[in-house]
């Protein structure tokens, strides 16, 4: 039998020699053992290749301190925001501020005129004067009654003394007539009745004076409600701020909040210091520290990060959102950041101690459990874990796993417990591979 040798093989003596040697070996095996031996040789080779454990990309469990920045929505509010209402109803006589005005604490903003309250004030003043006059009259009557009472007691003492002397003299026959003794005794009885009468009048006059004193107190109290009335008609700025709204003008009738449908006169806001209110998720509340610096941004200044300071903690959770409101202070002397602007808060999240991390793809979540595929002694083990927070391409895990142990980079329920595998360690910087491999394991 003759074989045609290709021209390219002729040009390479080494290749043609190798082919010739292989052909000789093949002829020898066929002559010695027959064709079935060749089939058995290839079958054993394929079986050996099938029984080899598959290569499984693997990583080591690492210990890190969770540090990340979450973007949270924020609400910008004025540090102080007050709607100005009058204390009493009235008409605006003068208003000295408008939208955009900058005011200092104590500046006069509005002057009002209220004729009804002026009439009531004058009426209360008149009532007070009348009560005082009645009290004075009552005191005068009391003093007169006391004088008459003292005079009646003096008359009683005088008449009683005369009666006692005459009575003693009447014991000597012929010195004093018995009729004189009887008359003097009756006079003493009349004097005693007069003393009792004036004593009752004094008590009644005293009670009348006490009642008039209470009337004076009531009138005084009523008048005091109006004596500072002039101050109610002048409205002053409660703090340094900026007038952001004005709804009323000269001649408008205004009234207190809640007493009719009266709108506010003006609204004043403190804009040089702002409140940045952001809802912090429940899981991150443990790391909130007053005084910490936190960055935020507003859509008005894209690409620019502003810095606020954690100032106030809500110390309670909103039941619907499971978040805690936290306030930042931001000094805003140039008024460039305004209340109501859209705000993104870059909230730093940090654990107080290191925890274990694996790639996100290493954790398998099923309807029954959550686990990682730990490779120990080239065998697969399923270890139940609980997932924590994310940090980049890694996730926290909590369970019977320790730092330095090897787990499959791409966890899967195809990696059955007890299956032999060949772990191929991947460096931490290469864990971002998005494609998850399919494992074809040999059935035991």
SS summary, helix count: 6
Give a count of the beta strands, DSSP E runs of length 2 or more.
21
Please describe the biggest sheet, giving its number of strands, its sense, and whether it closes into a barrel. 6 strands, antiparallel
Distance between the termini: 49 Å
CATH H-level superfamily title of the largest domain: Helix Hairpins
Top CATH class of the largest domain: Mainly Alpha
Mean pLDDT, nearest integer?
83
H and E order: HHHEEEEEEHHHEEEEEEEEEEEEEEE
| SS content category | alpha+beta
How do the strands of the widest beta sheet line up side by side? 2-15-19-18-17-16
Strand content: 25-35%
Describe the protein in words.
- This protein is an alpha+beta fold.
- The chain folds into five domains: 7-41; 56-64 and 354-430, conserved putative lor/sdh protein from methanococcus maripaludis s2 fold (Beta Barrel), CATH 2.40.420.20; 86-107 and 240-264, no CATH class; 117-229, Helix Hairpins (Orthogonal Bundle); 268-350, Elongation Factor Tu (Ef-tu), domain 3 (Beta Barrel).
- It contains six helices and 21 strands.
- It has helices spanning 7-10, 13-33, 35-50, 115-169, 178-227, 229-232; strands at residues 55-60, 62-64, 67-84, 90-95, 102-103, 108-113, 234-236, 241-246, 253-254, 266-281, 293-298, 306-313, 323-331, 342-350, 355-359, 363-365, 370-376, 379-391, 394-399, 406-408, 422-425.
- The strands form four sheets. It has a six-stranded antiparallel beta sheet with strand order 2-15-19-18-17-16, with no helix packed on it. Strands 3-10-13-12-11-14 form a six-stranded antiparallel β-barrel.
- It starts with 6 loop residues before the first helix and ends in a 19-residue tail after the last strand.
- Residues 1-6, 8-15 and 42-49 have low confidence and may be disordered.
């Amino acid at each position: 039998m003759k074989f045609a040798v290709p021209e390219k093989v002729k040009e390479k003596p080494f290749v043609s020699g190798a082919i010739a040697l292989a052909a000789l070996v093949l002829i020898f095996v066929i002559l010695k053992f027959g064709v079935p031996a060749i089939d058995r040789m290839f079958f054993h080779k394929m079986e050996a290749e099938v029984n080899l454990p598959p290569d499984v990309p693997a990583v080591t469990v690492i210990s890190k301190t969770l540090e990340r920045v979450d973007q949270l929505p924020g609400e910008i509010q004025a540090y102080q925001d007050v709607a100005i209402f009058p204390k009493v109803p009235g008409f605006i006589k003068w208003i000295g501020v408008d939208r955009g005005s900058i005011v200092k604490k104590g500046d006069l903003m509005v002057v009002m005129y209220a004729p009804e309250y002026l009439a009531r004030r004058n009426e209360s003043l008149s009532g007070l004067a009348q009560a005082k006059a009645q009290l004075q009259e009552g005191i005068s009557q009391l003093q007169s009654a006391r004088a008459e009472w003292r005079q009646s007691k003096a008359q009683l003492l005088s008449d009683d003394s005369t009666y006692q002397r005459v009575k003693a003299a009447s014991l000597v026959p012929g010195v004093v007539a018995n009729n004189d003794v009887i008359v003097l005794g009756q006079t003493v009885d009349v004097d005693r009745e007069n003393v009792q009468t004036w004593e009752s009048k004094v008590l009644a006059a005293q009670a009348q004076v006490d009642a008039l004193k209470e009337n004076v107190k009531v009138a005084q109290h009523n008048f005091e409600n109006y004596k500072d009335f002039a101050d109610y008609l002048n409205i002053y700025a409660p703090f340094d701020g900026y007038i952001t709204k004005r709804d009323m003008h000269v001649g408008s009738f205004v009234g207190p909040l809640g007493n009719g449908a009266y709108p506010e006169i003006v609204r004043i806001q403190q804009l040089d210091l702002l409140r940045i209110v952001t809802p912090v998720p429940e899981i991150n509340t443990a790391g909130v520290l007053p005084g910490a610096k936190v960055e935020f941004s507003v859509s008005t200044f894209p690409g620019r990060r502003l810095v606020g300071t954690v100032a106030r903690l809500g110390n309670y959770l909103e039941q619907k959102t499971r978040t805690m409101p936290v306030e930042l202070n931001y000094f805003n002397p140039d008024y460039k950041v305004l209340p109501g602007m859209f705000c993104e808060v870059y909230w730093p999240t940090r654990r107080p101690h290191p925890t274990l991390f694996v790639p996100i793809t290493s954790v398998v979540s099923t309807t029954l459990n959550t686990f990682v595929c730990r490779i120990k002694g080239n065998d697969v083990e399923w270890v139940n874990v609980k997932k924590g927070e994310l940090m980049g391409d890694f996730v926290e895990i909590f369970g019977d796993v320790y730092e330095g142990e090897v787990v499959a980079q791409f966890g899967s329920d195809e990696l059955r417990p007890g299956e032999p595998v060949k772990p191929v360690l991947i460096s931490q910087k290469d864990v971002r591979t998005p494609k998850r491999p399919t494992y074809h394991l040999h059935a035991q």
